[in-house]
Amino acid sequence: MNTIIKIALIFLAITGASTLLYNYTDVTFGTIDYFTKHGWIFLISIALFPRLTLLVSGLIFNTVEFGGLFWWVGFFFAPRILVAILATVAYWQTNQVLVILSWLIALGGESSEKIIIKRRMKGAPHKFADYSGGETIDAEFKVKE
Questions:
Q1: Distance separating alpha carbons of residues 7 and 10, to the nearest angstrom
Q2: Is residue 6 part of a domain?
């Protein structure tokens, strides 16, 4: 399946899930405008360096939601997706364009990282890639008396 189609399907699924959560459950999305809490520097830094920005802004400045098991799992394995989820929950009502951009950056960034790692590992030397070993050596061992 084409990458663009995958991104579109994932985005539609997430948008549908957030719409269902908002309309049929007690989940409340934030009503604060992004630019009243953060600025352009934070926006650029969270797009380029999500782990560092989340850690510094969560621990030191307390400007983003911080902690919990799923937060830490997202922090270590998919920080851009964690940023997109936090943006959806906090700013969906006021800044839909920024939330959409965060999802596009998240899905594009995570997939491009994995593609780059696969390309780099393809040319890397593999220590045990060939188990045939070519020639075999027969040896006999005798106990010395």
A1: 5
A2: no
